[in-house]
Design brief:
Elements lengths: L1 E4 L2 H16 L4 E5 L5 E3 L2 E3 L1 H11 L16 H8 L11 H15 L4 H9 L6 E5 L8 E3 L4 E3 H7 L8 E3 L12 H7 L3 E3 L8 H6 L3 H7 L4 E4 L2 E2 L2 E2 L4 H7 L6 H8 L10 E4 L7 H6 L3 E4 L7 H18 L2
Parallel strand pairs: 1-2, 1-9, 2-5, 9-10, 10-13, 13-14
Antiparallel strand pairs: 3-4, 6-7, 6-8, 11-12
Helix pairs in contact: 1-2, 1-13, 4-5, 7-9
C-alpha cells in the first residue's frame, strides 16, 4: 500500500492505515511532502517528514498535531535572548535534536532519502517513510507585493494575507526520491491522504514522474476528502484552493484531482456524511463517491476510516 501525505492530518491517518494494513499482513509506504522544508539557524527542518516520523513512532504531540510530545522550548527561548529566531516558529528541544542529527548527516554527505531512513530506524515505525524528492524544492507564496516562504505565510500569518500564487522553484529539475517509482509500480492500492490538496498532495504530484507513475499503475487510487461540511478539517486549505480556482468542497477537491478514466487520479473518493449531498456531483465527474464518517477523533475512528478506504479500493477493482 502506498500513501501520499502531508504532515498533521496525514500522519494521523497514516497511523490508522498502517495498523489496519499490518493486521492484514501488508506493508505501508508513505510518500511525504518535502516542499515545506526550510533552513533555520543553519539547520535543515522538514516539518511534514518529522510530523509523519513522530506520528508513526507514537511520539507526536497529539494536541498540537506536530512536534514531540512532552517537549520543552528552552533552547528557542535562549536563542531569542541572543536576538535569533522567530517568535512565530518555535522549535522544541527534542525536535531540535532531530534537526541537528539530520543536518550533521546531510553536511557529512548522506543524501536526503538515506537521512530519512536513519531517522526512521530509531523507532519501529511499521512503515517505510520516503521523502518525495531529494532536491531542495520549497514552496513560496506570491502575495503580489512580496514573495515569502510558505512557512512564514502559514505559521506567522495563518494564511490571512491573500496569496496570488504558489511557486516551487526547482521543481522542474527535481526527481522522485529512490524507492518511490518502484513503490507506485508495485502497489496494490494507492491512497491520497486527507492532507492539503494544493501545498501537500499537490506538491508531491508536481515532482516530475510521480503523477505519471500513478496513472500507469494498475492499482486503484482512493482519496480521502480533507473537507468536511464545506470547511477544511485542519489548516487553511480553503485559501489554497481559492488560489488554484477550486471550490472548497468535497466535490471541488475531487474535481481538482480528477477521475482516473478521464486522465485524472481518482477511482474512488471518500466524503463525509455531512457532504452526502455532493455525491451525485462527484459521480458526475466519473469518480465513485463513498460516504463515510471522516472525523479522526480517536484511534478506533481513524482505523475505521482506513478500513473504509481499503474497502473502497477493493470495490474499485471488483
Amino acid at each position: 500500500m502506498v500513501l501520499l501525505a502531508g504532515g498533521a492530518g496525514g500522519s494521523t491517518f497514516a497511523v490508522g492505515l498502517r495498523d489496519v494494513i499490518a493486521e492484514r499482513g501488508g506493508h505501508l509506504t508513505v510518500i511525504c511532502n518535502t516542499a515545506d522544508d526550510l533552513w533555520v539557524h543553519g539547520l535543515r527542518i522538514q516539518p511534514d517528514v518529522d510530523s509523519m516520523l513522530y506520528g508513526l513512532a507514537g511520539v507526536k504531540d497529539r494536541e498540537r498535531g506536530w512536534g514531540r510530545a512532552g517537549d520543552s522550548d528552552r533552547v528557542s527561548h535562549e536563542l531569542a535572548e541572543w536576538g535569533l529566531g522567530w517568535d512565530w516558529f518555535t522549535l522544541g528541544d527534542l525536535d531540535l535534536g532531530t534537526h541537528i542529527a539530520r543536518t550533521a548527516w546531510l553536511r557529512g554527505g548522506v543524501d536526503v532519502a538515506a537521512v530519512v531512513e536513519r531517522l526512521s530506524a530509531r523507532w519501529p515505525l511499521g512503515a517505510t517513510l520516503l521523502p518525495m524528492t531529494q532536491a531542495e524544492v520549497s514552496t513560496f507564496v506570491d502575495l503580489g507585493d512580496e514573495t515569502i516562504h510558505f512557512q512564514e505565510w502559514w505559521t506567522r500569518y495563518r494564511a490571512k494575507r491573500e496569496p496570488v500564487a504558489f511557486a516551487n522553484p526547482g521543481m522542474d529539475a527535481a526527481t522522485p526520491a529512490p524507492g518511490i517509482l518502484e513503490a507506485l509500480e508495485q502497489a496494490d492500492v494507492i491512497v491520497l491522504a486527507p492532507s492539503n490538496p494544493v501545498v501537500s498532495i499537490g506538491t508531491i504530484l508536481a515532482v516530475p514522474g510521480v503523477r505519471e507513475a500513478i496513472l500507469a499503475s494498475p492499482a486503484p487510487v482512493v482519496g480521502v476528502s480533507p473537507i468536511i461540511g464545506g470547511s477544511p478539517v485542519r489548516g487553511m486549505a480553503d485559501v489554497c484552493l481559492r488560489v488554484v480556482g477550486a471550490e472548497c468542497s468535497a466535490s471541488g477537491v475531487a474535481g481538482l484531482y480528477g477521475a482516473r478514466d478521464d486522465g485524472g487520479l481518482l477511482d474512488a473518493w471518500l466524503i463525509a456524511e455531512e457532504d452526502a449531498g455532493e455525491a451525485a456531483a462527484i459521480e458526475g465527474l466519473g469518480i465513485r463517491p463513498v460516504v463515510r464518517p471522516l472525523w479522526m477523533r480517536d484511534v478506533p475512528l481513524t482505523r475505521a476510516l482506513a478500513s473504509d478506504a481499503l474497502a473502497a479500493a477493493a470495490t474499485a477493482t471488483s
